[in-house]
């Protein structure tokens, strides 16, 4: 963990190790007790594909399972 401060122009400089690990673009999320920096991928769509590439089931299979579960809970 590193402590950083804003410079006189309001800029925040992240440590090199953080930039190398997470990149150089971030979305700022305001929270009730602070902020959160969320890294933005160079290619967000590709990042999503990579994140879910190892999914075992297709969207159709998930939809069918959800439908069957809902019907069972409703007393099919």
UniProtKB/TrEMBL annotation:
InterPro entries: SpoVT-AbrB_sf
Region (Disordered): 55-76
Highest taxon in the source lineage: Archaea
Alphabetical list of SUPFAM superfamilies matching this protein: AbrB/MazE/MraZ-like
Biased composition (Basic and acidic residues): 55-67
Protein name: SpoVT-AbrB domain-containing protein
Source species: Natronobacterium texcoconense
Lineage, uppermost ranks: Archaea, Methanobacteriati, Methanobacteriota, Stenosarchaea group, Halobacteria
